[in-house]
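FYI - complex with zinc ion, inputs then prediction.
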Amino acid sequence: LPALLAARSHGLTTAVVPSEQLGEAELVEGLTVWAVADLAELVEVLNGRPVCGRPVPALAPTTPDEEQAPDLADVEGQQSARWALEVAAAGGHHLFMHGPPGTGKTMLAKRLPGLLPDLDDSQALEISAIHSLAGHDLHDRLIRRPPFADPHHTATVAAMVGGGARIPRPGAISLAHRGVLFLDEAPEFGTSVLEALRTPLESGVVSIARSGATVSYPARFQLVLAANPCPCGHYGVPDSHCTCAPMMVRRYSQRLSGPILDRVDIHVAMTSSGASRLRRTAGPAPESSSVVRARVLEARDRQRRRLTNTPWRTNVEVPGAQLRKTPPPPAGLDLIDDCIARGRLSARGVDKVLRVAWTLADLAGRDKPCADDIASAMGLRQVETMGGAA
Ligand SMILES: [Zn+2]
């Protein structure tokens, strides 16, 4: 797919592909594609024999679209984390979920792509090309939904950002392009692997140097981090016993500090609510993804309209200097000043609060953040212990 896209952009009009790749090749419009079964057939075709009938695909393609995407209706309780996920989806914000094992961090992360807008045609081609290059079977159709990548914490730098012996393959961050990159047990990832995320988080692109050449892949992903409170997972959890040395607990929480968390606008602390996820408590059933997604799409529309004539489309992209051009209402300003005075908010933290407050206003259908939005945005950064004041 990427080869044919490149061929088309260089003005070529005809391409020959192996017959089993015809379906994928036909996703590129405006190109005549010849499918041949083997080199002998190619020679015949090049000697003037007409390309005979289209080969029948060996296997009936499965239909990934019909696979049920995980739904938020399955997640009981965790109201604040559900809300954080919705806000993250609405503004494109990176999200950090912090809490003991079994609180539903992974369940929620897997449901984020289902809240995001469909990919448009050019995004669908771009993302399908990346996945084709990674050797994924596209089942002869374009990827239309934001992808989800969740590399294991033992992933190498090459697996994360791309690499390989001869032709560098896209890594997890490119497979998550315009979708979600989920790092479960984030502090367990190698320091160099986490470090390798810094530049792509800034630029949305990753460059891989090989002898004599550099390959660049797009990598504009929404990052979701999950972390346990300590290596054993029980630190600070009521009615449980942490077996980690105090030094280990501190080191664990510091592993994520700095440049990565600097980019994460929303922090949410999750608590184990016993069996609440299994036992339906009184009250309405949890909202489904489609209900939440409708609000997210409306909030995205508001952003797009407001950010017309700017280089940005979602709140996460808007730089601090731009955010500060629209001062919050006096009551919101007082809140911020108070937090700064008490050392609970840094200059960078202020930008994050403003950025999230805009998304809250977008979700509520307001033209700009009110004082309540500022207060709620502060509430979405409640994990100050992990990595210090962020
Ligand atoms: Zn522990």
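Residues 2-46 form one domain. The longest helix spans residues 289-306.
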